[in-house]
Amino acid sequence: MNQALQAINDELTALIGSVLPSTVTIEGYSKDLSEDSQGSGWMYAPDLVVTNHHVIEGLADPMTVSPVGQASLMGAVIGSDPENDIAVIRVKGLAGSPLVLEEQPPRLGELCVAIGSPHSYRESASLGIISGLSRQIRLSDGTVIEEMIQTDASVNPGNSGGPLVNIHGRIVGMNTMGPAETVNMAIPAETLNAVIPELVQHGSILRASIGISISLITHSGSDGVTQAIRVRKVKDTEQSPLLSGDILLEINGRRLARRIDVIRALNRDSVDQRLEVLIERDGASKTVEVLAKARTSNKL
Fold this sequence. Notes:
By secondary structure, the chain is mainly beta. It contains four helices and 20 strands. It has two domains: about 1-205, Thrombin, subunit H (Beta Barrel), CATH 2.40.10; about 210-295, PDZ domain (Pdz3 Domain).
């Protein structure tokens, strides 16, 4: 028994030791110097650090980025996505090994480690499990962050922006505060992988809209009982070929089963394009053409 526990102990300490050097603490002041803020982050690529948008929101550039085991450096925000609470900071001279995003979705119950600087206690790690999947967080402006990971690994103020890694040291999520003190959340690697490259290239996220609001339903179709996307409301009922009650099946050949699938399909490349939308209406499938415009509200 002792040998088995020792082996687990050695594996865990080695895991944390391998990830820590790729994490940072971020500190800065508001533009009027009246407030300070502190959070965590992780190396995404050479000279690039990823953190939460709320960590850097309102802070003046440059901010202080302190990698584990290295001298502090200056960093400046090059891109931010408030809707997914993700930001990218360029840090010239940053050395170290970037962390890798896990390609496979996490499984309920699998082990994970949250790393960061809770309450300014740097180089902190907490062990837990993936305790929930496909959660939602509603922000104060009404924006909903989709497909969040719930974990019982301890996440406190200052942990925000730090990595949540699996037993292989790959990132399954980025820590952020949950809707309650005892409910800890992380932005999934799937979202990070979709958002960060666009932030690096463009500095912001451009999303398309086809003028609808949607809801998730349990739907009985040819594949049995599945989760489906139903159109709740249509903004322009005179111009749009979509109707309230339509089931969205595909957009430009992309299968839709989650709200996040619709958001991903309505990306930067879709703006001002005519999209082929496969729907189910009155039990029959049909394809309609919808003009996508740049999104200016929470409506899809």
